[in-house]
Design a protein that fits this description.
Helix content is 19%, strand content 39%. The protein is of the alpha+beta class. The protein has two domains: 3-86, Elongation Factor Tu (Ef-tu), domain 3, CATH 2.40.30; 91-234, Threonyl-trna Synthetase, Chain A, domain 2 (Threonyl-tRNA Synthetase, Chain A, domain 2), CATH 3.30.980. Helix 1 (88-112) crosses helix 2 (137-152). The N and C termini lie far apart (38 Å).
């Protein structure tokens, strides 16, 4: 099972590891800071360095506790020591964007009690769907003002790990309309935007809301009778 360095420190840009398996155009490492994607957050990219060679990592995925790094070209062989280097500009944009979505989700839940019905993100922009029966330009403007107030509040973003039993005792920890937490997960990672939002989450985030910067609500749509979408972008 791969040691997931990003679960403990999202700011790791470079790390040392050993190739434990090489399959076709992918390698499995004993430890990695590359996020494999999930929960709407895209996978990381970057390079793996070994023996004076640079192997571009174009895709990262996870299956059965193993993280596989897809290489563009020949792959390093099993057993050799390597250095992984995350594409930091892309990663940091995704960290800021993911935290912006949690701010949005926290404000809409706190002020309107609306559950999340879907979401997606790319570096610097994202969308989130809510169980709301109404949507308007005035509402979108109000949300923009409220989420930027939370950015300015400079709230700490804390990472914790709790047992599944503990997690099931925390009200509203799962904010999605459908509980997406797999039955086999025994330890739950949580993201706590201090004083605003606490959710189960496996992605990468900034350490304080002020790192997100200004957020613009750039679109709003009705996707059904009680399903409304807000689109955001980082300034």
């Amino acid at each position: 099972m791969t040691d997931l360095l990003f679960h403990h420190n999202s700011y790791i840009r470079e790390f040392d590891a050993v190739v434990v398996n090489a399959v076709e155009n992918s390698v499995e490492l004993d430890r990695t800071a590359f996020y494999p994607g999930g929960g709407g957050q895209p996978h990381d990219a970057g390079v793996i360095l070994a023996g004076g060679l640079e192997y571009p990592v174009t895709r990262v995925g996870s299956s059965g506790g193993k993280v596989m790094h897809q290489i563009d070209g020949p792959v390093p062989r099993a057993g050799i020591a390597v250095t992984g280097r995350v594409d930091w500009e892309r990663r940091y944009q995704l960290m800021r964007t993911h935290t912006a979505l949690h701010i949005l989700c926290g404000v809409v839940w706190r002020d309107y009690g609306a559950l999340v019905t879907g979401g997606d993100m790319r570096p610097g922009e994202a969308r989130m769907d809510f169980e709301l029966d109404q949507m308007s330009a005035e509402f979108a403007q109000e949300i923009e003002e409220r989420i930027n107030s939370e950015v300015a509040a400079a709230r700490d973003v804390l990472v914790n790990h709790v047992s599944r039993e503990e997690a099931e005792q925390i009200p509203d920890l799962i904010r999605t309309k459908i509980n997406l937490l797999p039955a086999n997960i025994r330890e739950v990672r949580t993201i706590d935007i201090s004083g605003l939002d606490l959710q189960a989450d496996g992605g990468t985030h900034v350490a304080n809301t002020n790192e997100v910067g200004a957020i613009k609500v750039v679109g709003h749509e009705s996707k059904g009778r009680i399903n409304k979408r807000l689109r955001i972008a980082l300034a």
